[in-house]
TrEMBL record:
Native organism: Aneurinibacillus thermoaerophilus
Gene3D superfamilies the record matches: 3.40.50.2300, Winged helix-like DNA-binding domain superfamily/Winged helix DNA-binding domain (1.10.10.10)
Superkingdom per UniProt: Bacteria
GO biological process: phosphorelay signal transduction system
Claim: Transmembrane is one of the keywords in the record: no
Protein's recorded name: Response regulator
Positions of post-translational 4-aspartylphosphate modification: D55
Length: 197
């Protein structure tokens, strides 16, 4: 199994080849190559690499702009390659989607640790974001269940405990989730509970 799927983007084909070799020797898979920012966006969409190693100065579209678009559209981070050390560039490179920054000439000694760290960080960020989404979803369901419970209390004159237990029993009998039953109650302002009461 490869250590990660990468895309290499640089308008100098020799440098691209060098980087590709360094990555492959270190156990990474290079799934796509591009020589400008526009093509990089297209190929990122198609191949969905884990990480992009991308030159800044390129024809058609520069690496900074392409990296921003790719991160916003597909959630893929970039390590930037540049021969320039202008402050402005470094300031821009501090944006969230830039997971590393290497100054040319690129050596294996710099490249491989940067790639390792970037892939690790990006996986960590993704799992955190996944957890947050999961929590938000659970909280949303809890809110819907509360609301549905209120409706049952109202419509069937139940106390809170009874309304909740009724929903639980209904779930078990119908093998539906609390969320599904809540949605049903919210939509119909009723539940076939007479057999349960
Ligand atoms: Mg260039």
């Amino acid at each position: 199994m490869s250590k990660g799927r990468l895309m290499v983007v640089d308008d100098e084909s020799i440098l691209r080849m060098d980087i590709k070799e360094m990555l492959q020797e270190a156990g990474y898979e290079v799934v796509a190559e591009a020589n400008n920012g526009e093509t990089a966006i297209e190929l990122a969409a198609r191949h969905r690499p884990d990480l992009i190693v991308m030159d800044v100065k390129m024809p058609k579209m520069n690496g900074l702009k392409a990296a921003r678009i790719i991160y916003r559209s597909f959630d893929i981070p970039t390590i930037l390659l540049t021969a320039h050390t202008e402050e402005e560039l470094i300031a821009e490179a501090k944006e969230a989607h830039i997971f590393g920054y290497l100054v040319k000439p690129i050596t294996e000694k710099d490249l491989i640790p940067a790639v390792e760290v970037a892939i690790g960080q990006s996986r960590h960020v993704k799992s955190l974001l996944g957890n947050i989404k999961e929590m938000e979803k659970k909280m949303e369901i809890r809110k819907r269940v509360e609301k549905a419970k209120g409706i049952l209390m109202d419509v069937y004159q139940l106390n809170e405990e009874r309304a909740y237990q009724t929903m639980r029993t209904y779930c078990m009998n119908t093998r539906k989730t609390m969320g599904e039953v809540a949605e049903y109650v919210l939509k119909n302002r009723a539940l076939d509970i007479h057999s349960l009461l």
